[in-house]
Amino acid sequence: MIIYHTTLKVDKAIAEEWLQWFVKEQVPAILATTCFTAYTLVRLLEVDDTEGPTYAVQFRASDLAAYTKYSNEFEGYFNQASYNKWGEGVVDFSTIMEVIQE
User: Fold this and answer.
1) CATH code 3.30.70.100 for 2-98
2) pLDDT tens for residues 16-64?
């Protein structure tokens, strides 16, 4: 299993609206690509939230080919859609990981 992990720092001024958009629009659209089988969204604790909350989302792909399909065909679109809507109000970075044992 492959995990596509993204950490997102969201500006306090847009945090509530962004979270609703992310959960109701962005995540379902990403899952609709069929590249991922599930996801987990968490809020980081014990971090400085002065400027806004920090979230992490992990999308699970069955194998590297599924993630690669997402990366090649969809990732740019979803990144641009987020930037078009929120601009620099959301800063993120992503990594991919392979599950060794659960």
Assistant:
1) yes
2) 999 999 999 999 999 999 999 999 999 999 998 999 999 999 999 999 9
Q: To the nearest whole number, what is the mean pLDDT of the chain?
A: 97
The tokens for 83 are 């930037």
Strands of the sheet containing 90-98, edge to edge, are 38-43, 54-61, 2-10, 90-98
CB distance 30 to 40 below 8 Å: no
Residue 13 corresponds to which tokens in the numbers above?
């001024």
Q: Dig out the tokens for 102 from the structure.
A: 């659960």
Q: 3-class SS at 82?
A: helix
pLDDT tens digits, one per residue of 79-102:
999 999 999 999 999 999 999 998
